[in-house]
Amino acid sequence: MTKITARPRWLKKEGGEWEWAYRYMQQQATERGIKIAIKRMTWRKKPCHELVAETISYLQDTSDDGGAFVTRLRNALRQHRHRSLNAGKEKKPYSFTLPTETKKALRAVAKRQKKSEAAVITDLLSGTEQLINDHQAQEQKLKKMHAFERKVAEQRIDILKVKHHEAMRQIQMLVTRLSIWEVALESEHPDIIVDQEALEATEKKTINKVKSAIKKAVDKHTFLQPRIN
Predict the structure, then answer these.
(1) Are 52 and 21 in contact (CB under 8 A)?
(2) pTM here?
(3) For residues 151 and 228, is the Cβ–Cβ distance under 8 A?
């Protein structure tokens, strides 16, 4: 059974709303991923309010596309409620004036599509609303992407700060040791014969030790950082 985090409270049991939402999901899901997700949740299951609610929650949790589809479903459900409330009321005719050229264009489109002029206008309004919903969903998706990129950049900056801090700490330790030797020998460049190979090996060992310390500090910081979702 798929784990669902939360069910939509806006989907009512009464008034045939869940049945309408179920039909909407079956008929209006055009994206392949959305269709597969809906089929996965509803396959061989008896339609009911709980099933529809779980499917909606699953779509919201699955992807941004699923969330956008649920947004469209919810907006369409609002329109359905509005139409249902006004179905029994007496409808008053509404008229408006269009420029002559617009009327000609509207008439031509209606003739070409074999529809009434009112139907063409209704389709245009529905299409406009759909574009607005898609635009809002895209804006939400971009906001999430920007927030994610900002968090990644902040973590990279934090890692650079950790590297710098640990490098300065190691440098301070080495300077302290060097100062102790200089004071002990009372000379900045003591006249001491040193084996070159041994000196290079010691330098390499010290550098590796510093690099290892920096890496450990970064690994510890990375481990303690919250995971970006």
Answers:
(1) yes
(2) 0.38
(3) yes
